[in-house]
What we know:
Blueprint: H1 10-44, E1 47-52, E2 55-60, E3 68-69, H2 70-96, H3 100-107, H4 115-139
Antiparallel strand pairs: 1-2, 1-3
Helix pairs in contact: 1-2, 1-4, 2-3
Amino acid sequence: MPLGPRPADIPRLRTAVKAYKVSSMITGTFLLLLCLMMVFRYGFGVDIELGGPFGFLALVPKEQITAINLSLVILTVHGWFYVLYVALDFIMWRLSRFSFGRFLFIALGGIIPLLSFFLESRVPRQVEGIIQRTDAAAAAGIEVAA
């Protein structure tokens, strides 16, 4: 089976690429915050407290937190945005008909720090190139994929 998107899938693929760009930036940012939070938690034994008695933002031992535990918020937000990131990766994979290895590599972007920023600039550019080739082939009347 030839690889490449079907012409009917191009509008959904464009939407998925736009959403992927946003989700990869948010996921990457929260991954960096998560790494910083892990250094605080496991390196120094403190969590980040928001709006507590020690100030607006404070590094406080987990047992002494009385206000919002920002460390847990960072963990949760990164987790849910990573789920969105992988879902959009799956949609792009399915519509673009990439190899499964490429799907897995893009999924690593939300786990390996800074990789999502690299992929955010590269993957959409590659997908846009694929879309342009598919549009050109459809305009010329050539069937790209079955």
